[in-house]
Structure formats: C-alpha cells, structure tokens
C-alpha cells in the first residue's frame, strides 16, 4: 500500500490547470486569478489628497491666523491656489490644492469668523496622502496566492481594473453508489440509510474551489455504474466516486474504472480511508473514495482538495498546519497513520487537542464537531496524552 505522501504525489502529478475566463470584479470573490501579479498602470492614489476634513495650507504659515479663500470637496476639479497667509477648507479625499503642502484637521483649528481660521504649528505633509503613496504606475503588485478576498479585489479596483482573468472552476462529478442509499428527505425502507456522501462531498468541492455536479445515485449494478461513470468522465474535469471500492461481492466501482480506463493504485496506508482508488477514465482523473462518510470526507481532504487547488493553479492544501499537545489517550490502528478527529484550542503554553467524539469511520458527529485532524504516525497503537503531534486545521480555532 502507498503512503499518504506517495499517493498524493501521484495524484497531483496528473493535475492540469483549467483554462482562463474573464469575470467582472463583482463576481470575482473566491475566484483564483491566472496571475498573482498585476502591473500597475496608474498611481494609487492618482493625486495628492487630504486624509482628514480640515484646512489645507502651507506649513510655513503655521502657527497663525490665515485667510480662507475657498473650499475643496472630494471630486473637485477647479482648485484655488494657496499662497502665503491663506488656507482652503478641504474634505477627506479631496485633491490638495496647488501651493498647499499640509492639512490641519478641523478639530485642531479654530475658525475666527469673517473668513479667517487659526491653526497650530504643523509639519509639512501632515494628513496628506501623496500621489502614488500606495502604488506607483509601473509597480508589480503581488497578490496572495489564494482565492481572491475582498482586500485583493479592492486593490484590483483601485488600479482601474473592471475585470480579472481567473481559472475556470473545475467541474467535479460526484457519484454515490449502493443499494442501501436513499435520498435525504425521503423515508427509509428496511435496510436503507440516507446518502450523506453526495451532499457532503458537494459542499467539500465548493469549499475547495470546484463546481459540484451530482450524478444519478447508482445501485450495486455494474451496468448502471458503468453508464454513470462514463457520463461523469465525459463532461467533468474530475470524477469522485464514493463506495464500491473494496473487495466485497457488491463492490463494483473499482472494477468499472479498470474496464473503462486505467487504475493507477488502490488502497493506501491511512486511517480512516484505506480503500482509496485513483485512476482515469476517458483521460479524466477519477478518485474512488471509501463509502463510509467519515472516510470519504477525510480522504477528500487529503487528496481531492489538493488536486482541485492544483487544477486552479494553487499550491498545497490551503490549510493551516500546527503542532498540538494531545490531552487524552486515543487508540488507533498501529499499522497505519491516523487522522484523528479532534478539537484544537489555545492553551497557556501552546495548542491543545482533545478527541471530538467517536473515531469510527461512520461516526459523523465527531467529524462535524472537530476543527482539526491530528496526525498520529504509523507504528504507534495510540495517540498518547502529553505528546505533541502535527495537526491539519479544517475549521475555526477558538
């Protein structure tokens, strides 16, 4: 069986970035730009302007009583020239009038009436935002190598860009198979369970930057599975199939992948999620996830999420990794590294971790309560209280 690292490397080696498309900035939140560097065509701000409501003047004339000769509002185009002994009322963001080199905030000045104002001593440049103070034309502006956040969109807008070239979201076909599965929202027949994987994996795909496409739920019928897998591989960038990966008489999905395409590997050393398969059908990557819902979500986190990010041109898994001290004994399979569901919180001397609930591969409530996966290496029968382990943070930290 491959290690987690070996399996991830083989999966990521198949990643091909999606093509570019242009979107308006108002639709760009969460999208991944084709380039994380932008050449500035304009100064930001494009002109010197006031950082405060107040009075624009020459610093050499302060302190003293000055004559008010006009007012400049934000957006003003006709600007009075300030000469010796003069001042101009100015609004925040308004252009600094010619001749002025500083601004006195309105609360620091005293209007005397009859068009005069008393100002204190002030240094040149006070409360003035210089032209190009944030960015100069010709600068190469680096954006974080992550999906576009509001601040990055603001930077692009300030540079005068109305749209941005982004990677198309990968379309991810999702197949759940099994005679026992019933759609959420329907009544269960004897022997049935509700299909948790389809909706959960769709949500995970959205979080990872992809566009989910739920394929028809398939029974344990090789012909039906083959038809649905072929449909997904023909029209998606990635196919996720959950269930049917093991060695039981009713596990057909892995065999269908082999018949329609090629299987690169099957089974990895990991807990939970050993029966993971990877291959291709019609030139499209296919990840065969375990049927147990915890295993399906954990293995998607380890392999599907990094693959989606690679298809978007993003590095790594985009998660915070930290070290946490385990506060209790948590058993595991000694033959495999375990990704234990834990809650991580800040303690007086660092991060602390406790089990989030049951660690079984069908116990979803513990996974929902967890905010991290604690990685306990193979060869160890348990996570030991008092020891520090690596943790992959999947949720909010308290």
List the helices and strands and how they pair.
Blueprint: H1 4-12, E1 20-24, E2 37-39, E3 49-50, E4 54-57, E5 64-72, E6 86-90, E7 102-105, E8 110-113, E9 116-119, E10 128-129, E11 140-142, H2 150-158, E12 163-167, E13 171-176, E14 181-182, E15 193-194, H3 197-207, E16 211-214, H4 222-235, E17 238-242, H5 253-260, E18 261-266, E19 277-281, E20 284-289, H6 293-311, E21 320-326, E22 330-331, E23 338-347, E24 350-355, H7 364-369, E25 372-376, E26 382-383, E27 388-393
Helix pairs in contact: 1-6, 3-6, 4-5
What can you see in these coordinates?
The chain is of the alpha+beta class and about 400 residues long. The chain folds into four domains: about 5-15 and about 170-310, MoaB/Mog-like domain (Molybdenum Cofactor Biosythetic Enzyme, Chain A, 3-Layer(aba) Sandwich); about 20-40 and about 140-165, Molybdopterin biosynthesis moea protein, domain 2 (Alpha-Beta Complex); about 50-130, Molybdopterin biosynthesis moeA protein, domain 3 (Beta Complex); about 320-395, MoeA, C-terminal, domain IV (Beta-clip, Beta Barrel). The protein is built from seven helices and 27 strands. The strands form eight sheets. It has a six-stranded mixed beta sheet, with no helix packed on it. The protein has a six-stranded mixed beta sheet with strand order 16-13-17-20-19-18, sandwiched between helices. A hairpin with a 2-residue loop joins strand 19 and strand 20. Helix 1 packs across helix 6, helix 3 (about 195-205) packs parallel to helix 6 and helix 4 (about 220-235) packs across helix 5 (about 255-260). The radius of gyration is 30 Å and the shape is elongated. The two termini are about 35 Å apart. The mean pLDDT is about 95.
